[in-house]
């Protein structure tokens, strides 16, 4: 039965005519000016170097789609954790509560949105990987484009395998009808494919870009993502080796955590990979990211919809005086560092400051905050992965050094807060590193799966309804099982 994959191909097909030029240096954003309704016949495509460029740019464009940055990621990658809850008005999108209290069933729409969003990315990558090799074009650029596609395919499969466990592994376009509908692949095999893609990508991608290419996947991005994938499999020697490589590539922590997430600090020294978003003058359709909009302060002009709000548990997790709390959370009644007064009348007590765009940057007719990049990997996380790997391998001094770099940046010049961690006990140091991940990476869609891979989910999420042996993964969308004619199977407990 080929319906399942054909549906995905149809959803991905329009991506080939979306063209995106990545951020230029500084804050200027330059995009290929192609009308959204413009289409190119398939028989004329994958012929020239220009076609190859369009196909690869389409991959990046799809990364900022609704399925990739809005409701579905909030549901799948954020709401199950103890740091967020639904937010907005109580009656708005009540189905999102099902992810927060673990009552979601396989027919809920965000599951299929997330599934399809990742497979759309993968389909676009496979089209590039299958078709670009035959194009007569610059050999160096061709190799780089293939490396970029492998990076994004690996990133999308990592999101899938964390969310669902075993998933269909498709590393090429189907050659005939017998290859349209494939069963789920064991997650160990999926992880192996992810790692191979990232190894291949790191071998060919450049360490940096300039001009219009700024923001594309780099060697550092591939190495850092590989380290994270290895961490989820407890391959600590690999995590250490990979993070050490990234730490020698010239990245550095940006000196002001509070300003790190503003639009004018995108692609800074700390950035390893970001989904590139922009407000393109005169083109609201291409300015389509809703990452900031869905999480923005509700009921204010220039704000947003108010979903995915911080919890009191997150507030309580910050140590006294930690400036990252105010840089992470917008509180009702405060005035932000950018001068936006948050009325006491807004419906929610807190909002995500990391996705916030100052209200003065709102342009009528455009999604609020559509210019806000989505931070996927920061150098701070590389340091924390390095600290965790060193601790697990018994390298206590090196673990403390990497941990202290993150805490020192947060501490700034105030030596009365965030004292150095000095314990040499492996268990205590592991707890300290996990705590640092929680507060440093808060509201960055990492906490939920982080706690699961740490083995703490039953304790941390149990009071919310999380059940061991079931909630390590979400249900496979019933719509996909139906389309497959039963070839896809459901996860236990659903």
How would you describe this protein?
With 494 residues, this protein is mostly helical. Among the domains are: 1-205 and 458-486, Serine Threonine Protein Phosphatase 5, Tetratricopeptide repeat (Alpha Horseshoe); 291-372, no CATH class. The chain has 19 helices and six strands. The strands form three sheets. A two-stranded antiparallel ribbon has the order 1-3. Helix 7 (139-164) packs antiparallel against helix 8 and helix 9 (219-231) packs antiparallel against helix 10 (236-247). Mean pLDDT is 92; it is low at 1-39.
Characteristics of this structure?
mainly alpha; two-stranded antiparallel ribbon; 494 residues; 6 strands; disordered N terminus; Serine Threonine Protein Phosphatase 5, Tetratricopeptide repeat; globular
Task: Report the top-level CATH class of the domain at 1-205 and 458-486.
Answer: Mainly Alpha
Largest sheet, described in full?
2 strands, antiparallel
Distance between the termini: 24 Å
Low-confidence runs of at least 5 consecutive residues: 1-39
Task: Provide the CATH architecture of the domain at 1-205 and 458-486.
Answer: Alpha Horseshoe
Order of strands, main sheet, comes to 1-3
Mean pLDDT across residues? 92
Strand element count = 6
What portion of the residues fall into strands of 2 or more residues? under 5%
Helix content: 40-55%
Quaternary assembly: single chain
Structural class: mainly alpha
Under CATH, the topology of the domain at 1-205 and 458-486 is which?
Serine Threonine Protein Phosphatase 5, Tetratricopeptide repeat
Order of helices and strands: HHHHEHHHHHHEHEHHEEEHHHHHH
Approximate shape = globular
**Gyration radius, in Å:** 22 Å
- Count, helices: 19
């Amino acid at each position: 039965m080929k319906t399942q994959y054909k549906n995905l191909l149809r959803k991905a097909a329009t991506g080939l005519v979306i063209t995106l030029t990545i951020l230029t240096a500084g804050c200027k954003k330059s995009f290929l000016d192609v009308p959204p309704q413009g289409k190119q016949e398939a028989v004329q495509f994958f012929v020239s170097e220009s076609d190859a460029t369009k196909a690869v740019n389409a991959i990046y464009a799809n990364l900022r789609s609704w399925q990739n940055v809005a409701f579905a990621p909030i549901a799948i990658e954020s709401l199950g954790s103890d740091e967020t809850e639904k937010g907005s008005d109580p009656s708005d999108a009540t189905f999102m509560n099902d992810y927060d209290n673990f009552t979601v069933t396989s027919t809920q729409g965000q599951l299929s949105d997330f599934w399809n969003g990742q497979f759309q990315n993968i389909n676009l990558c496979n089209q590039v990987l299958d078709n670009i090799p035959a194009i007569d074009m610059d050999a160096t650029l061709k190799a780089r484009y293939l490396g970029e596609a492998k990076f994004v395919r690996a990133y999308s499969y990592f999101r899938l395998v964390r969310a669902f466990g075993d998933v269909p592994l498709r590393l090429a376009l189907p050659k005939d009808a017998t290859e349209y509908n494939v069963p789920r692949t064991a997650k160990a095999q999926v992880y192996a494919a992810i790692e191979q893609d990232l190894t291949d990508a790191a071998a060919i991608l450049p360490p940096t870009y300039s001009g219009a290419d700024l923001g594309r996947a780099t060697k550092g991005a591939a190495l850092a993502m590989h380290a994270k994938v290895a961490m989820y499999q407890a391959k600590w020697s690999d995590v250490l080796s990979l993070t050490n490589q990234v730490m020698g590539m010239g990245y550095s922590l940006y000196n002001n955590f509070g300003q790190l997430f503003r639009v004018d600090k995108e692609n800074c020294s700390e950035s390893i990979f970001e989904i590139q978003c922009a407000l393109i003058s005169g083109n609201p359709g291409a300015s389509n990211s809703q990452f900031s909009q869905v999480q923005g302060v509700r009921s204010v002009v220039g704000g947003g919809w108010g979903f995915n709000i911080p919890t009191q548990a997150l507030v309580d997790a910050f140590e006294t005086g930690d400036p990252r709390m105010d840089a992470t959370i917008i509180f009702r009644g405060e005035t932000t560092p950018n001068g936006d007064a948050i009325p006491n009348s807004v419906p929610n007590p807190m909002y995500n400051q990391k996705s916030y765009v100052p209200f003065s940057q709102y342009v009528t007719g455009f999604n609020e905050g559509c210019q806000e990049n989505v931070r996927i990997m920061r150098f701070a996380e590389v340091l924390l992965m390095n600290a965790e790997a060193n601790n697990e391998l018994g390298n206590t001094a090196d673990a403390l050094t990497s941990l202290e770099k993150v805490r020192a940046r947060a501490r700034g010049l105030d030596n009365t807060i965030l004292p150095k961690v000095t314990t040499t006990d492996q268990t205590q140091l592991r707890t300290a590193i996990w705590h640092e991940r929680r507060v440093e990476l808060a509201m960055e869609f990492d906490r939920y799966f982080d706690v699961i891979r740490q083995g703490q989910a039953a304790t941390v999420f149990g009071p919310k309804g999380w059940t061991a042996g079931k909630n390590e993964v979400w249900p496979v969308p019933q719509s996909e099982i139906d389309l497959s004619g039963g070839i896809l199977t459901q996860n236990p407990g659903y």
